[in-house]
Give the backbone structure.
Amino acid sequence: MSFDGGEHQVVAVAGTSVRLRAQAGTEQVVLASFLMAAPDFAVVDGTTLPGVEPFGLLDGLPEEVLVEARDWERHVVEVESGLPLGAEPGAAARPEYDPVARTVVQRTEAKAAELGVGYRTVERMRARYAQQGLWGLVDRRAVRVREVTGRADARLVAVARQVIDAETHVSTGTRGRLIRQVVKAVEDAYGPGVVPLPGRSTFYKLIDALSTGRHTFGSAVTRRQTANRPQGVFTPTFAGRPGEQVQIDSTPIDVMVLLESGMPVRADLTIAVDVATRTICAAVLRPVGTKAVDAALLLARMLVPEPMRPGWSAVLRMSASRLPHARLVDVDARMELAAAKPVIVPDTIVIDGGRVFVSETFTRACARLGISVQNCRPGTPTDKGIVEATFDAINTLFCQHVAAYTGSNTTLRGDRVDAQAAWTVPDLQDLLDEWLLCGWQARPHDALRDPYFPRRAISPNDKYAALVAAAGYLPLVLTGEDYLELLPVAWRQINDYGVRIDYRTYDSPELGTWRRQHSGVTARRGLWEVHYDPYDLSQVFVRTPHGWVTAAWTHLPMVSAPFADFTWRHARRLAAQAGRDDTNETAVARVLDELLTRAQAGPPADKASARVAARTRVAAAAHRPPPVEESEAQADEDDELDGQTSTTVVPMGIFDARVEAERWPY
């Protein structure tokens, strides 16, 4: 045999030891397991070592093929031993197969004569049985691997595969359409009549064989998802401590919500899910397309405890949950009256290629908070599969129980779902926040298991309580100035008239020192850093060497209500349609005031204006940023006034020139 770079002869075998003699005459003793596991071990005299029969393959054979193989086994065993397989104890061998009186060659000739086959056939069966056992006696025609394409021309098969590949991103068609495309492609490539085409039935079978598992004639969504599936090994995303990896994403929620005008629309839901505990750290609903500032404010919301709200049950308090409330309060006093949801400071956030999450606002907010941002591969949602699965769970556990549930696609949608809409965005946000506490955080999650009791699923709160004891908790406190840092940035010059953004002018007396001055930021050509809130364009915030300066819009007295950036853009479109100059700030301000005034008085003439006006009011109501200025002195003053009797303060309304003019009789 071949071993250790040369040929050796087996001299003796004692137990598990084998004595080998090399061609040079040297001898050595090795273990049989070491000898057979050697990379260059091989038997060089033409024989092979017997192996284990593939019982699984035998079970998959047709019954008649297996019966024929067992018949051959009885004959081969009779040639070898003189007795057929399964002979009774004490039975005598037939004379022509008696090993004492007849040689192996004579017994083989007798068996060939008995079966009416050639001598070489019996010899071949004996050799195959010695090497492979019963599997060696199986008729190979029954286990022959056939091509799924049958006898179809290879050129036709190659073109058909290309056409099926091209069906991934187009609308689903019929097999007849695909066959027509294949025939046309074959004729264009090789000419008419050059490649033989199968019959109609055979062609259909060929298409079915080539499209198996690809959903070519099924759901287009499933077909695209299957084609986009990674070819590598599926490995689960793992995190060993809270915040090690947080996945964030945004999608339209499958519920119709009402704007203040009564118009039903769908809202965007943005969530952040902690991989280690499956905690939904924060969830934000918006009546319009999610903006970068929404994603940035979602980070801020993750870092503060969820406060208890009026109407919530006492069982939703953190002190009544499985969370280590007493130990967390010792570290962070804000946990005293918090609801039962963990506060998780993320180390890494996984995002997709959405413009909201790759924007400068979001990445700058993560950099300021010390959070690493990890981008998914393009077109690979499996890189953040946990947050994708969480959206499906929210639809199943929450959305389908809410009025005006639309279903995940149009085939599941009911009749006149928009007429069933009953929840506004702020109300649905409160309902969602309450459900997250009782329906998600306290509910056992199938992906969370107790290591000592693997069959027992535990809740996200239980998992957090177990991990925070080992990883610890370090609070991160945000101030009003931090909120300003999370807002979008625009770089502008401070002129004599102030700061201009999108044909709007902002000014403040505090900007007097910095007018026409260089900001000192050479990378921005001396421009000044201006932060703005896209949901409230009534003011902007300018960073100066002495701190933040709040500059109000100079035409704010002309507008009767707060407005957002999409409201301003719509007002500019209306001004252009009316023949006015959409770059004239005063003209656009008049159109904006007319739009908001009509929205307050009644439904506007066109649906676009109704939608914009209603979304403006809902966005303003749902967007509640913290106050910009917070000081300990103000907090102490509030503590001193807690014991005094408070007087109801009636807020002053917004001055409306038209309403005031109607009050005067002259």
